[in-house]
From TrEMBL:
Functional description taken from the UniProt entry: Catalyzes the oxidation of either pyridoxine 5'-phosphate (PNP) or pyridoxamine 5'-phosphate (PMP) into pyridoxal 5'-phosphate (PLP).
Cofactors demanded by this protein: FMN
PANTHER family: PYRIDOXINE-5'-PHOSPHATE OXIDASE, PYRIDOXINE-5-PHOSPHATE OXIDASE
Keyword annotations from UniProtKB, A to Z: Flavoprotein, FMN, Oxidoreductase, Pyridoxine biosynthesis
Pyridoxine 5'-phosphate oxidase dimerisation C-terminal domain mapped to chain residues: 177-221
Cofactor annotation comment: Binds 1 FMN per subunit.
InterPro entries found in the cross-reference section: Pyridox_Oxase (IPR000659), Pyridox_Oxase_CS (IPR019740), Pyridox_Oxase_N (IPR011576), Pyridoxamine_oxidase_dimer_C (IPR019576), Split_barrel_FMN-bd (IPR012349)
UniProt record, GO biological process: pyridoxine biosynthetic process
Coiled-coil features, chain-numbered ranges: none
Gene behind the chain: pdxH
Pathways involved: Cofactor metabolism; pyridoxal 5'-phosphate salvage; pyridoxal 5'-phosphate from pyridoxamine 5'-phosphate: step 1/1; Cofactor metabolism; pyridoxal 5'-phosphate salvage; pyridoxal 5'-phosphate from pyridoxine 5'-phosphate: step 1/1
UniProt record similarity statement: Belongs to the pyridoxamine 5'-phosphate oxidase family.
Name the UniProt record assigns to this protein: Pyridoxine/pyridoxamine 5'-phosphate oxidase
Residues bound to FMN: 66-71, 81-82, 87-88, 110, 145-146, 190, 200
Length: 221
């Protein structure tokens, strides 16, 4: 309980009035609705509309979460890139089950994806890496992600060193940098509603090879 000088989070609430989500309006598969919502998030000029929370677990079952950017999506899954020595990549190597969350608060929406993460091919990684700004390419070389460093100056010095090294040519793809594609085994759509009567629908794949093999259920809020 908060004292008189503190903010009481229990009193923080608002109504969700931006509209509902009805079963009759749902497409037969989840990706068209996801694409529609993502487009609306971009048109609404939300900060980082492609940002998603990636949840993994370590060998002890301890969950970890972090925000990364969605870089591609299609029927095969959702794609992000990372240092392959990072904590998330090491955890995915041991347990490739993953959960993704898109928190579009300003639209009273969120989307949750469950699936399995698989490493991208070297060709796919090289193609994306080549499209990045040069400073971002150099940044991938600089950081041994998730390792302990003594000070920020270590990163800045390394960045300047590599910027000089690669000033006259292309930046090669680091062997320790890659990406993952998360298959869509289930996708849940949440739309805020008045009086906490939110609309929630979950698509679950039936395991068949057919794109239309989706079961749709409404969930209680």
């Amino acid at each position: 309980m908060a004292d008189n000088n503190e903010f009481d989070v229990a009193d923080s609430r608002r109504e969700y009035t931006r509209g509902g989500l009805r079963r009759a309006d749902l497409p037969a598969e989840p990706l068209p609705l996801f694409e529609h919502w993502l487009k609306q998030a971009c048109e609404a000029k939300l900060a980082d509309p492609t940002a998603m929370v990636v949840a993994t677990v370590d060998e002890h079952g301890q969950p970890f979460q972090r925000i990364v950017l969605l870089k591609h999506y299609d029927q095969k899954g959702l794609v992000f890139y990372t240092n392959l020595g990072s904590r998330k990549a090491q955890q995915l190597a041991n347990n490739n089950r993953v959960s993704l969350l898109f928190p579009w608060h300003m639209l009273d929406r969120q989307v949750i994806v469950h699936g399995k993460a698989e490493r991208l091919s070297t060709f796919e990684v090289m193609k994306y890496f080549a499209s990045r700004p040069k400073d971002s390419q150099i940044g991938a070389w600089v950081s041994q992600q998730s390792t302990r460093i003594s000070a920020r100056g270590v990163l800045e010095s390394k960045f300047l060193e590599l910027k000089q090294k690669f000033s006259q040519g292309e930046v090669p793809l680091p062997s320790f940098w890659g990406g993952f594609r998360v298959s869509i085994e289930s996708m849940e759509f949440w739309q805020g509603g008045e009086h906490r009567l939110h609309d929630r629908f979950i698509y679950q794949h039936d395991g068949s090879e057919r794109e239309t093999g989706w079961k749709i259920d409404r969930l209680a809020p």
